[in-house]
Each structure stands twice: as C-alpha cells, then as structure tokens.
C-alpha cells in the first residue's frame, strides 16, 4: 500500500516538469514527509484539465458518502478491483496524477522494521490516482498494484506498491483511460541503517 509520501520540490520545478500551472500557487507547501492518515491536500492534475495543478485531499470521499465516511479506507485503491468496489466503480474514468518525488515503506524482519525512501533518485514523478467530489470538495486515492522488483523485498508483508508514472507517455496513458506501464525500477534508500558495534 502507500500511506506516506513526499513532495518537497519548488513549485516552479513542478510546473516545468508537468507543463502545468498551479491553480492557487499559495496553497502549495513543500513537505518532506506526508502522512496519508492526516488526510492532507497535495498537488494533483486531473484528466479534465491537464494544464492545471490543483490541491486535492488525500483519502477519497465518494459523491454518495455520508458525513461519517472513513477516508482511511480509501487512501489507496487496488487497480484489480477498481470496477468492483462501491467507492470506485462509478468513477473509474475520473483519473488523475498525484504529483510526488518519493514515498516511504517499511520492511519487516521479525520485530524489526526498516524504513526506506523509494522513488526515482528524488526526481519528480506521479502516482496513478482516481478522484471524486463530495459536497464541493475533491479528494483522491492512490492506485496500487501487486509489488514487483525491489518492492517485493521492501514491502514484504502485503506485497503492494503504488502505480508509478515516470514518463509523459506513462502519464498520458493513465489519464486517457489506458493501462499504465507497471514500473518497478525504483531507487531505495535505507533510512534506518544498522549501526555495528565494535568491541
């Protein structure tokens, strides 16, 4: 799954990379660590306007939801069941790019958890996303798939990973409703290196 990400690039860098402009420039604040369970707003490009970057809330609320909807269950959306789950099946055409330059996962070895920063050498890319509108506010889920490559070693319990879109072609394919190329060529930095004690 994907519950922790970062987007700490300057707004000018983001606009240049995605050939789009922020709708409300002042709403964007670079963040090194973003916890999905805080349901923050992060930069997103919707398929209805590929040249505008908007701030959407992470944790999708379906348009038919009640006020007590638990967004923790819709931080992610499994690509395999998008057309089946009630929260997503009627909005599969509502695709978006969730702008990022990295995410965090923990590898489990018994009782030891090791934190990794994962991405493409800190370069900007996007997660495949799906969005909806509830009471005038838009929110999104990050779409995930079965883990491949290094992610099978790091996310070694649930074996999931976000669908990462690195190239313009990858992003266009996702926004236009096609299958996105599954990338597993991530870079990974161990943020909890083991310290050796010498006696």
From TrEMBL:
Enzyme class (EC, first level): hydrolase
Keywords, ordered alphabetically: Covalent protein-DNA linkage, DNA damage, DNA-binding, Hydrolase, Lyase, Protease
Enzyme Commission code: 3.4.-.-
RNA-binding listed as a keyword: no
InterPro entries cross-referenced by the UniProt entry: SRAP (IPR003738), SRAP-like (IPR036590)
Pfam families per the UniProt record, alphabetical: SRAP (PF02586)
Keyword Protease attached: yes
Family of this protein: Belongs to the SOS response-associated peptidase family.
Protein name per its UniProtKB record: Abasic site processing protein
Species the sequence originates in: Faecalibacter bovis
């Amino acid at each position: 799954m994907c519950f922790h990400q970062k987007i700490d690039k300057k707004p000018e860098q983001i606009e240049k990379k995605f050939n789009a402009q922020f709708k409300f420039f002042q709403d964007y604040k670079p963040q090194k660590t973003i916890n999905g369970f805080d349901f923050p707003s992060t930069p997103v490009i919707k398929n209805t306007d590929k040249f505008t970057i908007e701030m959407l809330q992470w944790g999708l609320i379906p348009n038919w939801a009640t006020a007590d909807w638990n967004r923790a269950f819709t931080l992610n959306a499994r690509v395999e069941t998008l057309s089946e789950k009630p929260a997503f099946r009627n909005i599969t055409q509502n695709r978006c790019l969730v702008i990022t330059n990295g995410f965090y996962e923990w590898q489990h070895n018994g009782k030891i958890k090791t934190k990794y920063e994962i991405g493409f050498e800190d370069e900007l890319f996007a997660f495949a996303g799906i969005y909806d509108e509830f009471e005038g506010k838009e929110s999104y889920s990050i779409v995930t798939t079965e883990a491949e490559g290094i992610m099978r070693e790091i996310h070694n319990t649930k074996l999931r990973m976000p669908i990462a879109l690195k190239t313009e072609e990858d992003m266009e394919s996702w926004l236009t409703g096609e299958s996105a190329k599954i990338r597993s060529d991530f870079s990974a930095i161990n943020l909890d290196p083991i310290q050796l004690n010498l006696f």
